[in-house]
Design goal:
Length: 171
């Protein structure tokens, strides 16, 4: 099973995402979607297997279609996803409690726009933040993560760079 993981589109859909996510069995989005068109683009690629949480910039309409957090199992791997998660050593309020209650093998979040994949011994799982694939924010590169789930393990993890975030010139 191939997974495409993205976050922080802020309403922007790069057409290259269609290429990079087209072979995915599931597409997961860690929030700050920004527009219904982004949800539509994800569902056009993977209508039955999209797992999407809303972020802090998302409207009430998007919030009515997406959950604040999700947890699920695939091949014995427990996943937990929410938008604002912080990072290992500096988790957002309430996240450590959720990690200890859900006990996921993999915790997924967005929000920071900082790509990070890191094992966290404090709760015993893998932290995944795909960075940001939109144009808004302070990130330099637009990124997403792709990986396979096979035989109860994450394999072939790779970062896909979509290019630089376009900087707006100050006037």
């Amino acid at each position: 099973m191939t997974i495409g993981l993205l976050s922080d589109n802020h309403g922007y859909w790069d057409q290259r995402l269609n290429h990079h996510l087209g072979d995915c069995d599931e597409i997961w989005h860690a929030g700050d979607i920004g527009s219904l068109e982004v949800i539509d683009a994800i569902k056009a690629l993977q209508p039955q297997k999209a797992r999407i949480v809303f972020g802090n910039i998302d409207s009430h309409v998007i919030r009515s279609e997406c959950a604040a957090e999700l947890s699920w199992d695939i091949e014995g791997i427990k996943f937990f996803m929410t938008h604002i998660g912080g990072r290992p050593g500096r988790y957002a309020k309430g996240v450590r409690r959720s990690l200890l209650s859900h006990r996921p093998n993999v915790f997924i979040c967005g929000h920071s726009h900082l790509l990070l994949v890191k094992q966290d011994k404090s709760w015993g799982g893998l932290y995944l933040n795909p960075g940001a694939c939109g144009m808004q924010g302070f990130h330099q590169k637009r990124t997403l993560i792709k990986f396979d789930i096979k035989n109860g393990a994450l394999q072939n993890m790779k970062v896909i760079e979509l290019g630089d975030r376009i900087r707006r010139e100050r006037v």
